[in-house]
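Consider the following input, taken from an annotated entry for Ribosomal protein L5 (Choiromyces venosus 120613-1).
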Amino acid sequence: MAMAHRTPLNLLRRAPNILLRPSSSTFQQQQQSCKLSTTMPALARVSPGDKISASSPSKGGPRMRAKYQYRSPRYYRGRLAPNMPPPSASPASRLFVPGPFAAERLEDHYWNTLAPDLQVLSYVHKQNPTFNLDRDYRQLTALRLPPKPSRQQLPALRTFRNIPRLTGITVHSMVRAAMKESAYLHAAGMVVQSVTGVRASVHKSKENISMWELRSGKSIAVTAQIKGRSAYRFLAQLIDVVLPRIKDWKGIAGGSGDSSGNITFGLSPEGVSMFPEVEGIVGGFGALTVVVIVNYDMYLPKMVPGLHITIHTSAGNDVDAKILLKSMGLPFDGNFR
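Applying the prediction step yields:
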């Protein structure tokens, strides 16, 4: 009697095609038993009286554990700080600003034309020092009083490393009508923000001045700081579009400045209305030109404020700053002082 041949278990494991598969009815019974035996735990609901964490999707939904999301610190707090902020050029930085998307004409004109000319105009070669042992030794070692401080302007440019350049622009507006009605301050903030493209910050008064009817703690002014390419864009728009359209405007006073290279001038509400963001658009149909005032619905003429514009430069004195701004196209009235 021949014995039945049995397949070893190891051979069955290595050759899956030889394995005996269960029938369809047996497979369905096993799958049904798995479904019945496996039950999902009920989700715990949170009562309205309990505190809901900020990570919960909704007050009526289940409480979920928030995933940890690392946010780099915004400010650099020294080499010994445990967390270091990434460089501002990194997309992970909180100070990252995408761009540039277009080249600024005034900035290119400065680097290609004005900067070399200013370097030639202001550069002074360093001469080799000479020393006379008999005369200079007694003169340098003589006892004398320390020099008295003087309020003179900073010295002129001496090397090629300190060529004046534009560092930023500050746009400020003080609205006196805001002391009685806050709508004037809101309109001024919207005008400053639309003209500069920067979020305006509100300033409050610090003292009580009865002559101006000013109370302490009252929001009275708005300010916007422009830096980088936006400063060149704002200055180019000011020189090419706004200032040429102001009637009977002679230019910035020649004596303006703070002796440190910062030039300040003002614009009346009529001059601020010349900005394209405030005035509107001009459309033409053949020989007929129609002015479409679209933004006066947002900025009422009586609520358009005046502006104080301060141009910050890296020059050490006002004369070099005025030479820089005049070469860019900003007009000045009178001689430089």
